Amino acid sequence: DRPANVFVAGFVGTPPINLWPATIDADHTVRVDGVELATTSAGSTRSGGSCVTVGVRPESVRLVTVDEPGIAATVGWVEDLGHEHVVGGALATGASFAVRWPGERKPPGRGAEVRVCPDPAHLHWFDPSTGERIPWP
Fold it and tell me: Cβ–Cβ contacts within 10 Å for residue 116, how many?
C-alpha cells in the first residue's frame, strides 16, 4: 500500500503501477501533461518548478470520454481476462498507462482517444532522481 521506492512499486502488482512524470507549479499544483492531480502544502519540501514521479495502481484509475477532464491518452491494447479487462496505452506525453476495466462493460477499443483520471486519494509520490518515496503532506 505504501511502496518504499519505484522498484518496489513496479515489482509488486499485476498489471504494474502507472508511473508518470509530473511537475509542481509555483502555486504548489502538481500536474501531469498540464492536468492538475493534486496540490501540495506551502510547507512542502518540494517547491515550484520541481519534478516528481506520480505512481497510481491500475485499479485506482478510470477512463472517461474526451469530453471530460483528465489526461489525454490513446488506447493501445485491451486484454480480456473474463471477469475484467485491462486497458492500456499511452498518454499524450508518451508515458504508458494501464487501467482495470469491469468485465461486464465493453472497454474502449484500440486507437480510442480517452482521458485518464487517477484517484487523488491513491497517488504515490517518488523522487525522480533517487526513486525513493516522498512523504506527501
Answer: 26
Cell of residue 48, nine digits: 515550484
- Classified as helix, coil or strand, 92 is coil
The whole model's pTM is what? 0.88
Strand partners, 84: 102
Q: Which amino acid is at 9?
A: A
Q: Hey, what's the cell of 70?
A: 483528465
Residues 6+ apart with CB under 8 A from 109: 75, 78
pLDDT digits (tens, 9 = 90+) for 75-98: 999 999 989 999 999 999 999 999
Count CB atoms within 10 A of the CB of residue 54.
21
Residue with cell 465493453: 106
- In the numeric block, the cell 475484467 is attached to 84
Cell of 14: 499485476
**Cβ atoms of residues 10 and 126 within 8 Å:** no
